[in-house]
Amino acid sequence: TMGRTQATNSLRSQITLYNPSGTSVANAFSDDTATISNQLTATGTYTVRCMEYYGSRKGNYQVGLTLYPAP
């Protein structure tokens, strides 16, 4: 989950999940909070890329990660 910290700014959240081979397996964007929910099917290191959708606007975001089932 990725979202802006102030509702008054014009940032657009974008979050992308990459599998261990570097392939994008999930992508989401939103004017408020972007959320992806995927089952990780391969062993290895996954990468999460968080950015502003347009790539030019600046501001603060909050990023959260939840593991299911909890360890």
Largest sheet: 3 strands, antiparallel
Distance between the termini: 19 Å
> What spatial form do the alpha-carbon principal axes imply?
globular
Order of helices and strands: EEEEEE
Percentage of residues in DSSP E strands: 35-45%
Helix content: under 10%
Task: Supply the number of helical segments.
Answer: 0
User: Which structural class do you get from the secondary structure elements?
Assistant: mainly beta
Total strand segments: 6
Cα radius of gyration in angstroms: 13 Å
Question: What is the multimeric organization of the chains shown?
Answer: single chain
**Major β-sheet strand ordering:** 4-1-6
Query: What's the rounded overall pLDDT mean?
Result: 86
Stretches where pLDDT is under 50 for at least 5 consecutive residues are none
Describe this structure in words.
It is globular and about 40 Å long. The two termini are 19 Å apart. The model has no long low-confidence stretch (mean pLDDT 86). It has a three-stranded antiparallel beta sheet, with no helix packed on it. It has strands spanning 2-4, 13-18, 24-30, 33-34, 47-52, 61-63. Helix content is 0%, strand content 38%. It is mostly beta strands and 71 residues long.
